[in-house]
């Protein structure tokens, strides 16, 4: 099968768009994932004395 | 500030983190009044490195270290050589899912004798480092910290129970820390003292950055500080800087500067001086401080030729400090 220039260009453009979209949604997913976290950290205290 | 603000007590910065906020390291997060680590079990780097790359020259020479790091750092050196991961949030790096048990398993499978917590500062992924170290110790794998030394005393003493060796970066004098590292010198000197008290085997590294910490007085100050606080037997590595991050305008450290620094350190009495990040000939080898015979020959990261017998010079019997098996 031989691709025309237009078909080849369209294919490349669609591929690029797909990659960008995946990266965008991947980042969003990761941020949400991070905010839901995870291991309780050690060595901290409540700074309640700073209230107000 | 609200009542649920948190004070992180892990490093010298003692960040006060409001709900929804993160510490200076970008990876410790106040989630509804509880501090959580965003990078536990999520390294962004995992490699098998020669232990000499850390650099540790007196610790299991020729062995491999399973090396891990997560995103973030509590230092912000303008010259950071790993800034692509250290000056990023964990959402900006590609992270793996590798809980502590999997790190140890991977280290075992790949024939590594140690796990190195490195590339960024292990203090910021403290819980991950600690839990991995506990499992590694049980399995007979050693733990190595490659650190800038910003961890506070209490967490450091706790971690020291499982840490076998550390390479501590001593970057420069107080002014250098304030202006270039954007941190403080005192916590690093405290780290050095505490690590020695706790029996962690130590080596020190100084990255020489042209025009900023490369003067004769800078090197003399550094060496005298080391001799005062750690004595002459702690191996000292002078490392070559390459233009990076916010100091991309500078040039790589000239070889002569590194060799001059090494000669100054030797003249002032440091027993084991090395030059790294470039082929350095004699300054890659370990020489016996008493008879000057070469006891370990190195060429880059190839397998070193170790002539020591039970950790002693085969010629004169001088004990060479290190962990040799």
What would you note in describing this structure?
The complex is a heterodimer of chains A (52) and B (325). Chain A is mainly alpha-helical. Helix content of chain A is 60%, strand content 10%. The N and C termini of chain A lie far apart (72 Å). Chain B has 325 residues and is of the alpha/beta class. Chain B has eight helices and 15 strands. In chain B, the strands form four sheets. An eight-stranded mixed β-sheet of chain B has the order 5-6-7-8-9-10-11-12. In chain B, strand 8, helix 4 and strand 9 form a beta-alpha-beta unit. In chain B, helix 2 crosses helix 3, helix 4 packs parallel to helix 6 and helix 7 crosses helix 8.
What descriptors fit this protein?
heterodimer; A: mainly alpha; 1 helix; 2 strands; B: 325 residues; eight-stranded mixed β-sheet; three-stranded antiparallel β-sheet
Write the SSE topology.
The complex is a heterodimer of chains A (52) and B (325).
Chain A: H1 5-35, E1 39-40, E2 44-46
Chain B: E1 6-8, E2 16-17, E3 28-31, E4 34-37, E5 45-50, E6 64-69, H1 83-86, H2 100-109, E7 114-117, H3 126-138, E8 142-147, H4 153-160, E9 165-169, H5 174-181, H6 186-197, E10 201-208, H7 216-230, E11 236-240, H8 255-268, E12 273-276, E13 286-287, E14 294-297, E15 305-306
Parallel strand pairs in B: 6-7, 7-8, 8-9, 9-10, 10-11, 11-12
Antiparallel strand pairs in B: 1-2, 3-4, 5-6, 13-14, 14-15
